[in-house]
Each structure stands twice: as C-alpha cells, then as structure tokens.
TrEMBL record:
CDD domains (alphabetical): PAN_AP_plant (cd01098)
Superkingdom of the source species: Eukaryota
Keywords associated with the record: Disulfide bond, Membrane, Signal, Transmembrane, Transmembrane helix
PROSITE patterns tied to this protein: PAN (PS50948)
Gene3D superfamilies for this protein: Hepatocyte Growth Factor
Transmembrane segments: 163-188
Protein name listed in UniProt: Apple domain-containing protein
SMART domains xref list: PAN_AP
Provenance organism: Canna indica
PANTHER family: BULB-TYPE LECTIN DOMAIN-CONTAINING PROTEIN, OS01G0958200 PROTEIN
Annotated InterPro entries: Pan_app (IPR003609), S_locus_glycoprot_dom (IPR000858)
C-alpha cells in the first residue's frame, strides 16, 4: 500500500537527517503525508478524497479534491504551518515581497491555489494542485492554502467549537474541584478545633462527669450549722447557703 511507504521512508528520512527521501506524491494531489496521525495520508483542510473507497483501502494516488469550488472574489487563506512545500512545477516566484504583498498577488490571480514566503522575501505562488506536501517536525515553511469563504468559516467554527467545549467543560470542573478543596479544608479545620477543645476539657476536668458529693458533717461545718447569716436564697423547700 502506498501510504505505508510514507510512514517507512519518512521515518528513515528523520533518522538519517535527510539522507533518504519520501516516495514522491505518496498521498496524491492536495493530500499531506504525516507521521503524527493514522492513516499517514490525510486530505488538506477544505478537501475530500477523490476516490473514498480507494482512500479507505490506503490507496491514495488519486489524491483529494476541493469540497467547495473557489469563486475568486471572496476566497481566503488557511495557514498550514511547518511543512515541506509542494512541488514547484506549477509554481512561480517573485522576489522582494512581504507576506501581505504575496497574499494580495495570489488573491488577484484566480488561478492561484496557494502561496508561501521563503527566505524572508521570496514569494512562491502555486496555480495547480498541491502535490507532495509533507508535515515535518522542524525546518519547514508555512503554506497558505486558498479556500472558499464557506470552508474558512467551517474550519473556524470547528476550532471555535473545540475552544468553547473546552471552556464549558474545564472551567466548571476546576470550579467544582476548588470548591471541594475549600469545603474539605474547612471541615478539617472544624474537626481539629473540636478535638482541641475536647482534649483541653478532659485534661482540665478529667473524665468524671458526676457532680461532687459531700457528707452532712462537711456541709454543717461549711455553713456554720446552716446559720441564717449564710442563707443566700430559698426556692420552695430548697435552701441555698454560702
């Protein structure tokens, strides 16, 4: 299967620092070869397999086609970062241009399918299919792919949905965990405070919860035989002395 070559030879390319090359156009037109995903051949954003059945069987030679045709007037660009640029057989170069100038040059040409800036000021524009694009880990260039406005909105909406989903899930989860931590700390603090109070009480009072008992002789001596001078109050038949 052709896609296997992309994986095998691309691994050799990385290990041998470029001594070997990946089989040319493994993933077909408008496809990208990458070892970061499985299968290794993927269609570029805004494209779909030309032959889905062959693509599902890892036969990728027919490549990919656009989901939505370009209309020239409202197209935009999607940046694909750090890639080996497509073949330059259908590309042209203009020197001493900035990124914006190169972009405008491509927009004015309805046949332009992508552009890239290399060596800081060299503008490359492609007017045909993008062939032999490969994702690389370092030393690549940014390829700006021309897409219909609808496809740009779709890609942007998908990215926004992923961000919104992450915010919707992560923030409430973090808030719940924070609240749980605070509640646990307060519970532990209250529990430890109760232990300290109980420990202090039992150290100072002992474990005897009964009131002290005195015999009658002790009471008579303490109250001077229930002297009227020591009476402090009376409730019913109960007499309180000091």
């Amino acid at each position: 299967m052709r896609a296997e070559y992309c994986n095998i030879w691309y691994g050799l390319l990385q290990e041998m620092n470029g001594s070997f090359t990946v089989e040319h156009a493994t993933c077909g037109a408008n496809g990208i070869c990458t070892t970061s995903y499985s299968p290794v051949c993927q269609c570029l954003d805004g494209f779909i397999p030309k032959s889905p059945d062959d693509w599902n069987h890892r036969e990728n030679s027919e490549g990919c086609v656009r989901k939505t045709p370009l209309n020239c007037s409202s197209d935009g660009f999607l940046a694909l970062e750090n890639v080996k640029l497509p073949d330059t057989l259908n590309a042209s170069a203009v020197s001493n241009l900035t990124l914006d100038e190169c972009r405008n040059l491509c927009l004015k040409n309805c046949s332009c399918k992508a552009f890239s800036i290399i060596s800081d000021s060299m503008c490359l524009i492609w007017t045909g299919d993008l062939v032999d694009v490969r994702a690389i880990t370092e030393g690549g260039n940014d390829l700006h792919i021309r897409l219909a406005a609808f496809e740009l909105d779709t890609v942007g909406s998908y990215s926004s949905r992923k961000i919104s989903l992450a915010i919707t899930v992560i923030i409430p989860l973090l808030s719940f965990l924070l609240l749980l931590c605070v509640a646990s700390l307060l519970w532990l603090k209250r529990r430890n405070s109760g232990k300290v109070l109980n420990s202090y009480y039992f150290r100072s009072k002992g474990n005897d919860w009964e009131l002290p008992l005195y015999d009658m002789l002790t009471i008579r001596e303490a109250t001077n035989n229930f002297s009227k001078d020591n009476i402090v109050g009376m409730v019913g038949l109960a007499l309180f002395t000091r």
